[in-house]
Structure formats: structure tokens, C-alpha cells
Amino acid sequence: MSRGITAEELERLESSEYLLIDIRDSSAFEYGHIDGAVNIAQDKLCAEELPKDKKIIICCRSGIISGQTAEELCDSGLDAYDLLGGYVEWLRIKMADRQVTADVELSLRKKFKKSIWCKFTKAINEYELVKPNDKIAVCISGGKDSMLMAKLFQELKRHDKFPFEVEFLVMDPGYSPENRHVIEENARSMSIPVHIFESDIFDSVYNIEKNPCYICARMRRGYLYSHAKALGCNKIALGHHFDDVIETILMGMLYGGQVQTMMPKLHSTNFEGMELIRPLYLVREADIKHWRDYNGLHFIQCACKFTDTCTTCAPDSRTVSKRMEIKNLIAELKKINPQVEKNIFRSVENVNTNTVIAYKDNEGVHRFLDTYDKKTDLK
Q1: What single DSSP character describes residue 105?
Q2: Angstrom distance (rounded) from CA 323 to CA 319
Q3: Domains, in order of start, for the chain
Q4: In whole angstroms, what is the distance from residue 35 CA to residue 367 CA?
Q5: Are the CB atoms for 37 and 60 separated by under 8 Å?
Q6: Ramachandran sector of residue 257 (left: φ over 0; alpha: ψ -120 to 50; beta: rest)
Q7: CA–CA separation, 74 vs 68, rounded Å?
Q8: DSSP SS3 for 55
Q9: Residues 6+ apart with CB under 8 A from 248
Q10: Are 32 and 301 in contact (CB under 8 A)?
Q11: Stretch (H or E) spanning 241
């Protein structure tokens, strides 16, 4: 039988006494993990040579499957323990009564002024995302991107160059109590006055086998538009960043056979007078992670029911793996050409319609043959 160890007991142990193994997938581990943990996938543990002179503590997301893994290690002769409650419980205790508002705000004004604040304001100015008398619903999912966006909007309000209002909107589509607590505690510790409303989206998509994550995202956006409009907002702000944009460009080309991008703003087709804006459009994900780690912040990667059992979004893993493939591809290309990310972004700013075979707009498809005989080629 495996034994359990609480997060409080873990904190009292000397680091030399134990090895903490996080068996979540690598993307979840990168998103946030316990200090000192090593990431080894559950199916790879049997191939690892683990120390017999230390306590082996197994951590998963919510403590649901770590017990079984620890028990198997005990059966093989190791001194293995299950971290009770997993990463989520450790996070709950870590965040209790914490107040980081002043440090987080100072970091945006000083250390991250150039890499985050200036890029945030550049996107707002360049794409005209915020205008006088706007009322913007800043949509917070609980992750690093949307929480950073909320703090940036608070900072923008302090500058007050023209009048506009913000509402910090959190939709609870069916979070577990633990996940909702993490979101609420992060908002409290950073002094973000969130307005929380509830829906049953997770229950609605739980039994959908084909593309549940896509359907969930569409439904969530619809609920956000509807609630924001009821609050008198004319815009919703989402936390997509620069890396999301360039990954979308390549995914469209390599998997969709089309050239398109994630736009910095869009008019809603279903909610008249509403607009979607992406103020982190020019902010790099690496800089967001740096800001998170510099301030010792911890967030939950994904809080849906598909991940509450320590798995990835398996019903839609094809889409998830495609984005990871693209992310890894860009990382490899960057080793050869450090400018590759900027060039991918610029490719959709420098489209020359005279040198493409065809392009589409609201009027339909336009082919180069339509005007070919009317033009004189330059030699």
C-alpha cells in the first residue's frame, strides 16, 4: 500500500530527503509546478532508475491517479508516497492569505515595461483596440494570460488618457470547487475585482465525442458576449498573445491549406454592436511566463472536466497535438533563423495580391486569371 503525504508535510521536509515527481503531461508541468519537482510521465516511470535512499513523492493534478502510481512503486520496493490533493491542493495552500498586488504592479512598471507594458499599449494604439467611452469586459479564464491582461488594464486605467470603463468578467462553466478557489484567490491576491457568473457549459459538452473543446470554446464566447452586453459593455477582451497568432498562421497553412490569422479585433456577427479585442496581440508568451515566475504566481492550465482526472483534453487531442507540433516546429526553425517568428507574423502583413494564385474576400474568390490579360508583366 502507498502512503499519502500532505502539502503541509511536504513543505516541512528537507529537499535532500525526497524526490518529487510530477506525472502530468509536459505542457501542464511547464504551465506551473511545485518548486523542485521533476517531470516524468506516468508511462515512463518504470524505465527510470529512482533512488532507493529517498522518499519518492508522486504528484498529479488533483491526486486522483498519483495514489495508484505510488502504490506500484511501493510494490517494486521503493519508499513511495502519494501527494494528497495533488498540485491543486498544494496551490491552494500556497496562495492562502497571499497579497502580491504591489509587487506585480511594480514589475509591470519597471522590469517588464519594455517587454510587456509597451507591447500591450502598442497593440492598443496600432489596432485601435480601446476608444473613448468604451466599456470593456476583460474576460478572465484564470490562466496566466488573462490574469496579466487584467492587471495591464488596471494600469491603463491609471493613466486615464481618455474615459473608458472595464469589467473583469469570470465565467464559471462548471469548474470544480478547487479550480474556482484558485481563480478567486489569484484575483484576490492581485486586487482584481472579478464579476463571476455561472453556466453549465461543461455539462453540456461532456458527452460530445467530436471536437468538444471547439464547441466548448464557442459556447463560452457566446455566454461571455451575452453577459458582457447585459452589463452594458461594447467589447470583450481575450488573452491571446503573439505566439497564439503565429501558431494559428502556420496551422492554417500546414493543416488547413489556407492563409489566415487570428485578428487583433473582430466585430461580432451574432451580437450587434459588440466587438472582440486581443490586447496581448504583440506580447510574447515567454515574457508572460517570465512575469509569472518572477512574481511567484501559479495558475491552472485547464480547468475543464476532461482534465480533472489528470489527463489532457483527450477527446480533442488531435487539435491539441497539432498546436504542440507547430510550437515545436517554430522552436526548431528558430534555432536556424532567430527571426523566424517575426517573419511568420510579418507574412500576413505583407500579402501581395498580385503574386498569389487566388484570394478570398466578402465578395468571393478572385483568381489571378481574372485580370491576367489586362495587366502587363514587368520584365
Answers
A1: H
A2: 6
A3: 3-95 (3.40.250.10), 101-319 (3.40.50.620)
A4: 56
A5: no
A6: left
A7: 10
A8: strand
A9: 260, 261, 262
A10: yes
A11: none
**What values do phi and psi take at 57, rounded to 5?**
-105, 120
CA dist., res. 45 & res. 48, Å (int) = 5
Residue 206: burial class (beta carbons within 10 Å; 0-12, 13-18, 19+)? middle
Listed in sequence order, the DSSP H helices in the chain are: 7-12, 26-31, 66-75, 86-95, 101-109, 118-126, 144-159, 177-189, 201-205, 212-230, 242-256, 285-294, 317-336, 340-347, 369-372
Q: What are phi and psi of 233, to 5 degrees?
A: -80, 150
Bridge partners (DSSP) of residue 266 are: 276
Residues in the chain: 379
pLDDT at 203: 62
Mean pLDDT per 10-residue segment, the chain (379 residues):
84 94 86 90 86 94 89 92 92 85 97 98 97 96 94 93 94 81 91 89 66 71 90 96 96 93 95 96 97 90 48 40 88 96 96 91 92 70
Sign of CA dihedral 89, 91, 92, 93: positive
CA atoms of 100 and 291, how far apart (whole Å): 13
CA distance 317 to 369: 41
Q: Chain-centre distance of CA 274, in angstroms?
A: 23
Q: Which three cell numbers stand for residue 357?
A: 494564385
Please give the model's pTM, rounded to 2 decimal places.
Answer: 0.83
Listed residue (202, 228, 227, 237) closest to 308, CA to CA: 202
Residues 272 and 113: their CA atoms lie apart, in Å, by 36
Contact 283/119 with Cβ under 8 angstroms?
A: yes
HEC profile for 307-334?
Answer: CCCCCCCHHHHHHHHHHHHHHHHHHHHH
